[in-house]
Design goal:
about 35% strand; Rossmann fold
């Protein structure tokens, strides 16, 4: 293997639009714009102590629905001047002498042009004692009867704070998405590496970038976080004791759990098995290059999986079947994406051999993989690709915006989180799996290696 490729693989492990719309839609399975339902969500009003919190509430609801990627958000400039706060504000027209006469606001204000909405979200926020109280509805304005037009009406509670406003907004938006058959990301977490405290530590944040918190305090180098399927454990590699080792911590208490590290010069790229009972990783064995190993989550019963004369790292187990493993190998001289059975048999290279490949991540349905690759547009820079594992068809999602690495799927299977570097520092971004709705989540320090997991609740 060339020296440059070996160095690149080590740096990636330790620090790390093809323009064909039909192919993109086929691989990603996203809903194209013409198939999206139109939804109108006028700003909710708040009473009393709720009033100062309404900007946060309204912005959160809008972003949650827009970022889901399944709805066409009707611009607020098209809305009627009079906005209902509850279904009781809507009055059906009456007929007088054969002529239809308006009695006030009605559903057709929203179902007809220029709004032409399929769905209408309305409600209001009040304060009861120390609680925010949201009463929110989802209506189908195209129906003529107000009773049948109500898809749902629910009440939500939260503290009278900015966080409370975000909480009830997330819950209301989640109910709308559930009504439409989509998965809400509310409650999911992103773990990542940041040096903003002066050292590279593991941090966490909500899926929308809120509540960024440091998880570790080793005052050293900590990298490559991975999260257990139930979201209750984070494993990562660290130089806390002047040599590379793995640590496992509880995400709720942040207490370190028992993990007996092997004696080795280098250990990297941990990965939890789908059942949460095994931890896969790469380590140097008897002065060989990094090889793939599996062990119990306490470090016991260690088994060697790969046995090659090349660096093998980043094992990623199919979350749906638990039977296939993606990994990066330098067997051809350049790091490429490979697939094998869980016992190490049936090794197959699934990228083309061009460029350098890094950071594979399975989609939740176990059918697609996102990864970083230096081929395509901007050759030499890493960019984000998605591949259908069965057909090996792939599309390029990022281009001409610096280097893009460490893609990781969201629990809903339609979003990705990744790290982008355009200047000195890297920052964490999210996007839909068709490359749209790009959103920056971090801005302080150098941030990298994000992983996305469902919440623990």
């Amino acid at each position: 293997m060339k020296t440059r490729s070996i160095a690149l693989m080590m740096m990636t492990a330790l620090g790390l639009y093809v323009g064909v719309t039909h192919l993109t839609a086929q691989i990603i399975g996203v809903i194209v714009a013409g198939d999206k339902s139109r939804i109108a969500v006028p700003d909710f009003r708040g009473k009393g102590a709720a009033a100062p919190l309404m900007n946060t509430f309204n912005e959160t609801v809008w972003n949650d629905l827009a970022d889901a990627g399944i709805l066409d958000m009707v611009a607020k400039t098209n809305y009627p001047l009079d906005v209902p706060q509850a279904p009781t504000d809507l009055k059906p027209p009456t007929v007088i002498n054969g002529t239809q006469v308006r009695q006030g606001m009605w559903l057709t204000d929203w179902s007809g042009p220029p709004v032409s909405a399929n769905y209408l979200g309305i409600g209001n926020v009040d304060v009861n004692g120390t609680d925010l109280v949201l009463r929110g509805w989802l209506l189908l304005p195209g129906l003529a009867d107000l009773r049948t037009a109500q898809a749902f009406g629910n009440t939500y509670f939260g503290p009278t704070t900015q966080d409370g406003a975000r909480k009830i907004a997330h819950e209301y938006a989640a109910d709308i998405l559930k009504q439409l058959g989509a998965v809400s990301l509310a409650g999911s977490k992103i773990y990542f590496v940041s040096d903003r405290s002066g050292n590279q530590e593991i941090w966490s944040m909500d899926y929308d970038g809120q509540n960024q918190q440091r998880m570790t305090s080793h005052r050293s180098i900590s990298k490559m976080p991975t999260v257990s399927p139930d979201g209750k454990m984070v494993a990562y590699a660290t130089m806390a004791n002047q040599s590379w080792q793995l640590r496992v911590i509880n995400t709720e208490t942040r207490r370190q759990m028992t993990f007996v590290n092997p004696v080795t010069s280098t250990i990297a790229t941990p990965e939890f098995a789908p059942d949460g009972k095994k931890l896969w990783f790469s380590m140097v064995i008897n002065e060989s290059p990094l090889q793939i190993v599996a062990a119990n989550i306490d470090g016991g019963d260690r088994q060697r999986i790969s046995n090659a004369r090349a660096i093998e790292l980043s094992p990623r187990i199919n979350p749906k079947t638990g039977k296939e493993v993606l990994f990066i190998s330098g067997r051809t001289g350049h790091p490429q994406l490979y697939k094998m059975n869980i016992d190490g048999s049936g090794v197959e290279m699934i990228t083309t051999g061009e460029g350098d490949v890094a950071n594979p991540s399975w989609s939740p349905d176990g059918k697609k993989v996102a990864f970083a690759w230096t081929r395509g547009y901007d050759p030499g820079n890493f960019n984000i690709f998605i591949m259908d594992v069965a057909t090996k068809d792939f599309v390029q999602l990022t281009r001409q915006n610096g280097s893009n690495e460490n893609p990781f799927w969201a629990p809903d299977g339609t979003h990705l989180v990744y790290a982008n570097q355009r200047g000195r520092n890297r920052q964490i971004f999210t996007m839909l799996a068709d490359g749209k709705r790009v959103k920056q989540l971090t801005s302080d320090g150098d941030n990298q290696q994000p992983v996305w997991t469902k919440g623990t609740n």
